[in-house]
What we know:
This protein is of the alpha+beta class. The chain has helices at 12-25, 40-48, 85-89, 107-121, 136-144, and strands at 2-5, 60-67, 72-80, 94-98, 126-132, 148-157, 160-170. The protein is built from five helices and seven strands; from the N terminus they run βααββαβαβαββ.
Amino acid sequence: MIALVEPCERYLNSYMEAGDEYRRNGVQTYAFDDARAYDIFEKYDNYRNERNLPPDRVGSHFYWLVNEDRDYFIGEISVRHKLTDALKRYGGHIGYGIRFSEWNKGYGTLMLGLALEKAKSLGISTVLITCDDDNPGSAKVMENNGLVLQDKIANCVDGRTITTRRYTKAL
Length: 171
């Protein structure tokens, strides 16, 4: 069964394999954590409880989309508790990534739909999600979940100017 769960040891090896897939395929749109380098569960706990966060970071809940029957990690999604001015321009309330070998199978749409329910339960009344203008797959995932394009704005990210699509939806 496919389910959205809190990150746990059961799926950790599969999560690390997904990170390896991203590196092998040069994916840079979302970064899975290097679970071999540090305790990612401690990181997730810190974000959930809004403690020991790096500067300019906000509290977040992380979830994994998994195939429970296969102990298989499919994707990760984070729901940020609030927005900074920077996140209002680039990032929004939700960030997500699907394992490379599982792209174009509808998992992004499913995962975002489930995460929107989580966002509502966290007290978010209107969700903002962004993607790069040259990422039509992510735009389609948002549109499939009823988000509406609010606008496109220019942002400087890692020293380059990119156009960002900003989508919103009342929850």
